[in-house]
Amino acid sequence: MGKPIRGGIGPNLDIIAFSALCTHMGCPVSYNNATRTIDCPCHFSMFDPEFGGQMICGQATENLPQIQLAFDEKSGRISAVGIHGHLYGRVSNLL
């Protein structure tokens, strides 16, 4: 994100991750550099990554699930270790 973000990891606390599927109907979302939002092209939902994937506008009724990340300072590796919220189409995130 280029600046420290709540929940961010890494040396600058600026790395975050979210589900790539919109919570409305599962369309793929993408980051919009101009507006600093995560946008869904299908039904125009917008999410704010700087506020935990909060839904800003559009058809979605839930925030975008945030992927919980871990950073290994020694190796510089980033790993996904959990998720906050439910992935689209899943009743539970458990297998």
3D architecture notes:
There is one protein chain. This protein has 95 residues and is mostly beta strands. The chain is built from no helices and seven strands. Strand 6 (66-72) and strand 7 (77-84) form a beta hairpin. The protein is globular, with a radius of gyration of 14 Å. The model has no long low-confidence stretch (mean pLDDT 91).
Strands ordered across the widest β-sheet: 2-3-4-5
Segments where pLDDT lies below 50 for 5+ residues?
Answer: none
What is the arithmetic mean of pLDDT? Answer: 91
Share of helical residues = under 10%
Q: Helical stretch count? A: 0
Layout of helices and strands:
Elements (H helix, E strand, L loop, with lengths): L16 E2 L11 E3 L4 E3 L6 E3 L5 E4 L8 E7 L4 E8 L11
Antiparallel strand pairs: 1-6, 2-3, 3-4, 4-5, 6-7
Brief overview:
This protein has 95 residues and is mainly beta. It is built from no helices and seven strands.
Please name the defining characteristics of this protein:
single chain, mainly beta, four-stranded antiparallel sheet, 7 strands
